[in-house]
Design a protein that fits this description.
Blueprint (H helix, E strand, L loop, with lengths): L5 E5 L7 H11 L3 E6 L4 H12 L3 E6 L5 H15 L4 E4 L15 H29 L2 E6 L13 H21 L4 E8 L5 H14 L3 H10 L9 H12 L10 E4 L8
Parallel strand pairs: 1-2, 1-4, 2-3, 4-5, 5-6, 6-7
Helix pairs in contact: 1-8, 3-4, 4-5, 6-7
Length: 263
Amino acid sequence: MLNGQVAIITGAGKSAGIGKAIALKLVAQGATAVLIDIEKSAALMSTIKTINANGGKAIAMECDIADTNQINQCVEVILRQYQRIDILINNAGISGSVPYFLDISDDVWDASYHVNVRGAAAFCRAVIPSMLTQNKGVIVNNASLCGLGAINAVPANYTASKFAMVGLTKSIALEYAEHNIRCNVVCPGVVNTELRKHAMERIAAKENISTTQAQELEDLSIAMRRAAEPEEVADLVLFLSGPDSSYITGAALPIAGGMAPGL
C-alpha cells in the first residue's frame, strides 16, 4: 500500500509510544520510515534495529522540533538521501505542566507553543515544497481530544496548543488541497503511554488520591471504559496516510472510545 514512499515520524523515541506504533504500521505497509526524536535514545535505536531485522527500512535522526534550523537541516538530509518525502506524521509533543491556570508560567506557555504548534508548523513548511514538486503528499498531525474540547485537570497551555494544531491542520488542508496534498489531524483521548502515567500523577496530586484511583476515575469517563492502546491510534494514522482515505482532508478525527468531547 505504501511501497516506495518515505515517511517522517516525529516523537518516535518512546519504547511504548504512539510514534513507535505508527512507524511499525507504516513500515509493515512498505514505507521507508525516518524516525525522529530529540536524541537517539536506546528505545529509538531498538525500534530501528527491530524494523530492519524484520526486513523493513528505517533510520533514526536527531532533531529538536523547537528549533526550526534543525528541522530544515533534517529535511535537507532526508531529501538528499531519498529524493522524496511522501508522508509527514507530526507526532511529537509535550504535555507537562501544573494543573491550575494561574500557576502556569510564561516559560511553560512558550514551551507548549514552540513544540506543539510552531514545531509542527515548521516541519510542514519544510516538507511541503517537495510535496508540491511531486504533486502529492500526506500530513497527519497528532493533536489530542483536548484539541476539540477542554477536559478537567488538563492544563490550559496543553489544551490551547492542541486547539491550535487543529486550526493549523485545517488551514494547510484548505490551501494545498488543489495540489493533492492532504492534511488531517487525529485527536486521541486516553492512551496507555508514558504521557498517561504523568497525567495520572498530576490528577492524583490535585485530587489527593492515588494514581490507581485517578486511572479508575478516568476510565469511568470513557464510554468504552478503557484507554486506547498506541496501536489503535496508529491504525487510524495508517488509514489517513494511505490511498483508502484519498478524499479526506481537513478532518479532525477523535479516537477516544466515546469520551464526551469527541462525540
